[in-house]
Amino acid sequence: MMSGSYLLESAKSMALTLQLMQGTPGMDGGAAMGQDRPAAVCEQRAETAAAGASAEKGAQTPVWPADQARGEISRQSLLDFYDQLALLRSDPLINGLLVNGEFKLAAPEDAHVFAYERSLSGRRFLIVSNWSKEPLDFALGRDFVEGKVRVTVYPEIVLTEKMRLRPYEAFAVLV
């Protein structure tokens, strides 16, 4: 177990930002050794969880929960988030935007908010990351307010034109 203020959020924020950077041709989430890579990873995680749960004799909660009262996180919670990112990368539309989409910084004036957009064939994918432990203001384009959030660090998010990003908040939205 790891502990620390915003440790999980900062790890997820960096993972989201880096995993959704430009892809390379052939990195389409396709087959690896004859299996669909994201599905195989998820199956492996599920098997590991099932084995751990049966070893705990009737445990009703997962064996890797974050002990948020002490600020601890488990390695498994990060792996689960990576699984979510891998599944997102395997989406042909998202992958196409990341591999071939035009890159544009969305907040170049802010040293603590790393935001960028990928656009291709009329579709746009925006990734926003607050790389600070302080809440920060962010102006979200009106068209992205109506977009679909595809992944987020915090479980609840409300898109508005004038957002107050929480510490290490990161999300990706598709229009």
From TrEMBL:
Gene3D superfamilies associated with the record: Golgi alpha-mannosidase II (2.60.40.1180)
InterPro entries (alphabetical): Glyco_hydro_b
Name of this protein: Maltogenic Amylase C-terminal domain-containing protein
